[in-house]
Amino acid sequence: MNDNQIVDSSFTAIINAPIEKVDIPAWAFSLPDHEYQDCSGAHVAAGFTTGPDGKRMSINVEIIGGSLMVQHYVETLGEKDHLILESVSDVFTPNGRTTINVFWELSVKPLGDGRCEFTNHVRSHATEELLNLLDRQGIPFDVFRTQRQPMSIAHNQGETPLFAASIERAALRA
């Protein structure tokens, strides 16, 4: 873990659909709001748009550890079996608004027999803005990281099988 890394969390789940039918970017950039909400009690809203450079973006709103997060995920890799998104996410805490860098990587690999393994990998890093907010409040970064990790990890663990089920439904409809 580097000095500014907050969390590095990865979980897997089985998708009961052949890998040829799975298209993670198509799923991510067309996920209905209600279905995103069904994947976690912490999910508030989801949508998609494009950035000024024309890259696809997934906008997700969720509450993790009592802090509202607005994530502006920009696609940096978009292959049917592998999607990487990066966001400078707005975080609304009881102590003020700040930002966190979040890297969200979704991938599948074939298992045979019409099944694949889905991996939901999330990494987050502190921005200078977050470090300054913590410093102004006298909160050591290590303390913040130690408190934030269990909430972020539990969130990822809970949403992973529900994302896999949603991707499976999308693959079987295709």
Quick overview of this protein structure:
The chain has four helices and seven strands; from the N terminus they run E-H-H-E-E-E-E-E-E-H-H. With 174 residues, it is an alpha+beta fold. Strands 1-7-6-5-4-3-2 form a seven-stranded antiparallel sheet, sandwiched between helices.
What's the helix count? 4
Element order: H for helix, E for strand: EHHEEEEEEHH
Rg, nearest Å: 16 Å
Number of structural units classed as domains: 1
Low-confidence stretches: none
CATH A-level architecture: 2-Layer Sandwich
Strand content: over 45%
CATH class: Alpha Beta
How many strand units?
7
Major sheet: 7 strands, antiparallel
Distance between the amino and carboxyl termini: 39 Å
Shape: globular
Look at the structure and give the mean pLDDT.
96
Side-by-side strand order of the widest sheet: 1-7-6-5-4-3-2
Any idea what the CATH superfamily is called?
START domain
Helix content: 25-40%
Class by SSE composition = alpha+beta
Protein name: Polyketide cyclase
Please name the defining characteristics of this protein.
single chain; 174 residues; alpha+beta; Alpha-D-Glucose-1,6-Bisphosphate, Chain A, domain 4; 4 helices; 31% helix; Polyketide cyclase
Tell me what you see in this structure.
This protein has helices spanning 24-28, 33-38, 128-137, 141-173, and strands at residues 5-15, 43-50, 56-64, 67-79, 82-93, 96-112, 115-126. By secondary structure, the chain is α+β, with helices and mostly antiparallel strands. The protein is globular, with a radius of gyration of 16 Å.
Secondary-structure map with pairings?
Layout lengths: L4 E11 L8 H5 L4 H6 L4 E8 L5 E9 L2 E13 L2 E12 L2 E17 L2 E12 L1 H10 L3 H33 L1
Antiparallel strand pairs: 1-7, 2-3, 3-4, 4-5, 5-6, 6-7
